[in-house]
Amino acid sequence: MFNYTFYWSIVWEKFPELLQGARITLEVTILSMIFGTALALPLSLWRRAREGVGHAFATGWVELARNTPALFQVYMVYFGLGSLHIHLPSYFAMVAALTFNNAGYLAETFRGGLNSVPPQQLSAARSLGMSAFSAYAYVVFPQVFQVVFFPYVNQLNWALLNSSLGMIIGLRELTGATQAAQSESFRTFEFFIVAACIYYVMAKAIETLAQLASWRLFGR
Amino acid sequence: MIEIENVRKSFGTLEVLKGINLSIEKGEVLCLIGGSGSGKSTLLQCINGLQSIQGGNIIVDGTNVHARDTNLNTLRQKLGIVFQQYNAFPHLTALENVALAPRVVKKQSRRDALDLAREHLDYVGLGSKADMKPSGLSGGQQQRLAIARALAMKPAYMLFDEVTSALDPELVGEVLDTLRKLKESGMTMIVVTHDVAFARESGDRVAFFDQGVICELGPARQVINDPKEERTRQFLQRVLH
Amino acid sequence: MQFQLPYSGLQWSDLPYVLLGVWNTLILTLAAATFGTLIGVVIGWLRQDVPVARVVLAPYVDVTRSVPLIIQFILVNSSFALAGIPLEPLWVGVIVLSLYMGVLTSELVRAGLGAVRFQLKWASRSLGMSYWQELRYVSAPLALRTFFPGWIGTVIALTKDTALVSVVGYVELLRASQVLINRTNEALLVLAGTGLFYFAICYPISLYSRRLERTFQHD
Ligand SMILES: Nc1ncnc2c1ncn2[C@@H]1O[C@H](COP(=O)(O)OP(=O)(O)OP(=O)(O)O)[C@@H](O)[C@H]1O
Ligand SMILES: [Mg+2]
């Protein structure tokens, strides 16, 4: 630090590469959240059933996803499947691993949300003559939605941060792209500071949008 | 003696106490009555130094509560207070609830503090509940526990803020009995209450609060049976009928 | 010993290396959990009770939570290198993970202290207790009940996050197993063993924490 001069211009030259990386980061994050949500819905219902194959399967998934490192999950998809001769490109491996992770966490979030609605709410709705479908759609689901909203946004932020693991399997998402961009000049510090700022902005943007949406939707 | 001189208190722009003057003699029971939001609880909190004031003085045995150099922790040992909500420490048994302050504030030995606590639990009729956690006690028992806890500090004054309002009707009696017993022992008390009958029977004087001022102050029987002020009359009519 | 699993390149002589990885994972977790908890308790209390601290600490809290840990490791590593005092990977891990654990812990401390009703504090103060006596005998014990289950969850998260310190060259378990994979081409087998190890640590603890949470709720 004493005789080190920071050298930023080289970072600006490569800035488009970082932005390209940020795009991939967002893609991977959003795709894995969409697939993760789609899988978490049945998983959470199976978890609520007290027994059966579905329950065992969902429990196994949830506990594995939550009790092993995300990086391990990435390795499993990328290297582990590789030894079964299933070679996924790092992009798909990353989406798959994050989907597995998100689904595990979101299933628990959804289960908590469903449990937070008292069963009387459903019977009250049914007693007013609603069909099971409308009772869920108009009474149960809106309440669950409100309970899971912020935990869901949290998971989205987690996924964003976790997508940085892509670097380790050679994916050029933001972290990987930064790693690659700094490899010629070895200006590691400068490059990663800029990457950190981009992550910060993305995370804050998600947080702000979520807050705005929450005011709009729930008035709080 | 507690002297309250021209006390003003505001929350932001809302003036809650608008110049209160009162003095409470040793051995006296003063009851405060008045409508919701008139500032009774706030006054008790100010006497205890739990709230700051914006004007006037509160003087307890010659010590100005709100002066900069007053040691509130010492002063508060003189002023027991019991609140409307149950405030027993949920992680401690009844006995430990009472023994805590004597131990940590007065630095009594564990043994002495526990003996003292047992004595005070007996006094409020909770001797058999000593080892129960508050969650196992009824509302009335929790309020009596709070009274025992305050008494164990051997205060010179006791302040009660609607200690029966949160209770089921059948539990009110046991708490009021404790207050009566305390009055008999000569304790100086300020009692905020909605229970006009209690104020008439047990109060020496009654002060009627209305919108941050004392509207009427006088001997308990006179204020309640024969109020001089129109607003006091209206209030009493509302609560008595 | 030349024991070999059938068709596998794994050998008993690989065991010390794996054990080194296990050991490194454990000491890193232990160190970061200890320092992180100490940091977290102090800043959690500051953030709850000292308004100025809330503002001053906000950037630290914010950045720690919105920048990927990998990047935090790389940045700490390279800033010490630039300053001319290169740091052992273990210490890079300890610094970053302690600060990170500190933030997570501080949230729990805040939530715990914030959940203590102010009337209970008033009751304590009205008995003549000082601020510190009230904190020590009333607020802290009450906060501890909500804090503890969450804290255990954080330690689990920390255990898992130690895997990331491999990016600055720390040979923790996952890194050790990757080296083995490269040599033996037994990815699935080695990874399964590794995963089992993490799972065997984290799962029982998380079960325990869930049970605690339930008992405290009923109390
Ligand atoms: N901490 C506070 N912040 C802002 N306003 C407050 C606060 N505490 C009390 N107030 C307001 O001060 C006024 C007086 O409140 P106080 O609790 O002293 O009334 P009270 O006479 O005890 O009424 P009640 O019979 O309902 O207990 C009320 O309008 C109340 O809303
Ligand atoms: Mg009141």
Automatic annotation (TrEMBL), chain A:
It comes from the Bacteria. It is a multi-pass membrane protein. GO terms for molecular function: L-cystine transmembrane transporter activity. GO terms for cellular component: ATP-binding cassette (ABC) transporter complex. It is found in: Cell inner membrane; Cell membrane. InterPro entries: AA_ABC_transptr_permease_3TM, ArtM/GltK/GlnP/TcyL/YhdX-like, MetI-like, MetI-like_sf. The chain crosses the membrane at residues 20-41, 135-153, 191-210. Residues 22-210 form the ABC transmembrane type-1 domain. The keyword Thylakoid does not apply. Keywords: Amino-acid transport, Cell membrane, Membrane, Transmembrane, Transmembrane helix, Transport. Belongs to the binding-protein-dependent transport system permease family. HisMQ subfamily. This is Amino acid ABC transporter permease.
UniProtKB/TrEMBL annotation, chain B:
Its main location: membrane. It is found in: Cell membrane. SUPFAM superfamilies: P-loop containing nucleoside triphosphate hydrolases. InterPro entries: AAA+_ATPase (IPR003593), ABC_ATPase_HisP-typ (IPR030679), ABC_transporter-like_ATP-bd (IPR003439), ABC_transporter-like_CS (IPR017871), MetN_ABC_transporter-like (IPR050086), P-loop_NTPase (IPR027417). One of its GO terms (molecular function) is ABC-type amino acid transporter activity. Residues 2-236 form the ABC transporter domain. Keywords: Amino-acid transport, ATP-binding, Cell membrane, Membrane, Nucleotide-binding, Transport. PANTHER family: AMINO ACID IMPORT ATP-BINDING PROTEIN, GLUTAMATE_ASPARTATE IMPORT ATP-BINDING PROTEIN GLTL. This is Amino acid ABC transporter ATP-binding protein.
Automatic annotation (TrEMBL), chain C:
One of its GO terms (cellular component) is ATP-binding cassette (ABC) transporter complex. It comes from the Bacteria. It is found in: Cell inner membrane; Cell membrane. Keywords: Amino-acid transport, Cell membrane, Membrane, Transmembrane, Transmembrane helix, Transport. It is a multi-pass membrane protein. Belongs to the binding-protein-dependent transport system permease family. HisMQ subfamily. This is Amino acid ABC transporter permease. It comes from Bradyrhizobium rifense.
